[in-house]
Amino acid sequence: MTEELLPPTLRAEINAVLDDAGVYADRRLVLRMLQTAVLLGEDRTDRLDLKIASAALSEMRDAFRLFAPFHGVSKVTVFGSARTLQDDPLYRQARDVAAALAAEGWMVVTGAGPGIMQAAAEGAGPERSLGVSIRLPFEEKANTIVAEQEHVVAMKYFFTRKLMLMKESRGFICLPGGFGTLDEMFELLTLQQTGKAEPMPIVLLDQPGGGFWHGLERFVREELAPTGVISPGDFDRVTITDSVAEATAVITGFWRNYDSLRWVGDLLVMRLRAEPTPDEIAQLNTQFGTLLAPGRIEACGPQPAELADQDALELPRICLHLNQRAVGGLFRLIGAINRLGSAPER
Question: Fewest 10 Å CB contacts: which of 42, 217, 254, 322?
């Protein structure tokens, strides 16, 4: 898009810089970033805006490097208050659920601060913890759990931090907290509601007998849904529980049979761990026909774009044309896929 906006001689000089640096993989994307930086200069962009853009890109690079060695490891992000004390039942809940998921082979991602974040890091242990901290005047450094393994990256901006706390994980657990925790929780729901993020399991975990999240649920169902500002089923995609065992089962169970999805044009390809039978596919069509644009759910092989990218070619697939306004129904479809008789035990 921006390539045409730079003179050919300047584009050639930028390409020469990439040659000298030995940058060949995904060359067009790197070239686009460099060209955008040049164009920001040509636009006489305000200094503060340039500082924001520069810091954001630098912070994202640091975070990408932190996560890169653990690319193939399932991760869960735990959100919660930095003010929670060690003798609080919520602290124990965060520690115990992190320990349970770490025992299942998961890594635990937190904001690297005190309170719930430290509890989760303690539960997972230093080797299975990753932290994305925020530089605040009253929180000078990351907790020692993530710091001792250098499994932490510090961010200046909340928006870059929130991106990295969410983009790498395959599940999310929110414990009661304040404005920051609620902001993160609602960001998760917004991304899921709008289809801007792939379906992921979201658990709202409370202390035993606690009513924090049930209070939020009442507000959503009694105030938001009746006014039409959200759809009636938008809150159904979260699980509210005070049980560590249930929270762990929800996170791991979401991936029992369902593996991933990919859009190929307007075709939705869902990759599974086990091939469904024809009767099971017929059952899915009967149960979820209202989610579909014209057509049916069908077994299919890898699509040309997947073949070109060598994208999970070994996995069986089902394909469908999804009504875009029914994206929330994907959670129910995934749940049904995980309950198929052909699904693996775990």
Answer: 42
